[in-house]
# Entry
Amino acid sequence: MKVEHEEQDTRGRFVVRFGDDDAELVYTRLGPHLIDVQHTYVPESARGHGVAEELAKAAFAYARERGDRVVPTCPFVRQWLQSHPDEAKLVDAPYAVSLERRP
# Structure
């Protein structure tokens, strides 16, 4: 599965292409070293095959390479972080506390 990265100004996305419908994880750059991962979408026909997980992995690898901290606004990413504690180390401190409070 090939994950591509697109970025323009302060917005970007990680993409897996499926014909006419892309799977994507969308983010906004909040500052020089802070990104807000906001939304993950996977087409119905591609669900259940680990596509969203690959998008999340790509976003966190990107953040790590650039020295970015992550704000996990996306509900999927917040849930994914519960089973990926090593990746949670990249979460910006004020938001890391909110992950710990999750029921």
Notes: The domain at 4-100 is CATH 3.40.630.30 (Aminopeptidase). The radius of gyration is 13 Å. The chain has a mean pLDDT of 92.
